[in-house]
Every structure is written in structure tokens, then in C-alpha cells.
Model the fold of this input.
Amino acid sequence: MPGVLVLVRHGQSEWNLKNLFTGWKNPDITEQGEQEAQKTGQMLKSKNVHFDEAFTSDLKRAQHTTDIILSILGQGHIPITRSQALNERDYGDLAGLNKDDARKKWGEDQVHIWRRSYDVPPPGGESLKDTVARVLPYYIQNILPKVMQGKNILIGAHGNSLRALVMVLDRLTPEQITKLEIGTGEPFLYKLRNDTTVEKKETF
Ligand SMILES: O=C(O)[C@H](O)COP(=O)(O)O
Done:
């Protein structure tokens, strides 16, 4: 029987707090972000989830969040694999800019298209489609086989690298994915079938 797959977005980062496009930049989480991660850890504890392995990105905010969740669960000893493949969408030239200033400069609609559309990349950066193209092979090659072996897996990652994965797991269309927002520290718990499709998704 497949194990459970839990996806968690990192807690609030210093740049989320400052309302800056972040992408591959590497700020840590704030005190509020730590609390969000602790709360997620408590929720998973109440569900009695015992992880066998965790995966996270190359970026501090996702790694720190993953460490906090595992320590709340008393599972800090499990193997954690870090990969750039799970990094946030590369925001290119927008990284470091204030999101409201960007709206003033390029207009609400254009900024929304860069942030939420499926296939329009921000200048010099990755579209969600590009992000799917790196997240999905990594998931299929490195994570899915473990879930299929019955291992319970935690993925601590980012708003858009997780939107990429959720799009595939939930079979969302490019139109539907534009509406999906994932909050900081927000977890999703998936139970998969033997054919790798989703049997059940729990949100908290
Ligand atoms: O990289 C960022 O700026 C955020 O983590 C996610 O940004 P978004 O809400 O614009 O997708």
C-alpha cells in the first residue's frame, strides 16, 4: 500500500513580510514563519503521521520549515534530501522588487499574469510550466517510488514549486491552476492509489 505524501509550503519568510518577489533568493523565515511551521508540526502530530523521509529545496526557508516540523514530530533523525529541483519558481528580474511597486510599474494585470498564469514567464525567470518541467521529473524519479513502496514522505517546499506538483496530482487545467493559492506553512496530505493517482487529499 502506498504511503502518505505531505506537501508543506515554508512559513512566512523575511521577504514575504517585506512583500518582495523572492524566487531563488535565500531569505530565512521570520518568527511568525517559525510559529506557522510549529503549528503545522502540531497538526501533523495530531494526525499521527510518522515520516520515513523528507525532501526539501536548496533554499533556507524551506529547509528551516522542514526541520521545525520534524522536530515538533520528534522525527528529526529521518533522512532529508535537499534538491534545487524543488526550489521556488525563478522570479528572474523581479526578484528583490516590491510586489506593489511592480504593480504600479507594469499594472495589476501584467503582474498577476506573471505570478499566476501557467505559461507566461516573468522577465528572465520561469513560468509555472517551466517549474513543472523541473519539479515533475524529480518527483517521479526520486519521491514517487518511495511513496509507492509504502514510505511516508514530507516535502517542504515553496508556493510555486508546490503549485506545480499540485497541478499534476489534482489534474488541474492551466485555467484552474491560476486560482490556486497556497498560504505560508500550509500543508496538504495526499493518499495515493497503487496506480499513483490521488485517492484522497486532506487540507487542514
Ligand atoms: O517567491 C516569492 O516571491 C513567493 O515565495 C511566492 O510568490 P508569489 O505569491 O508571487 O507566487
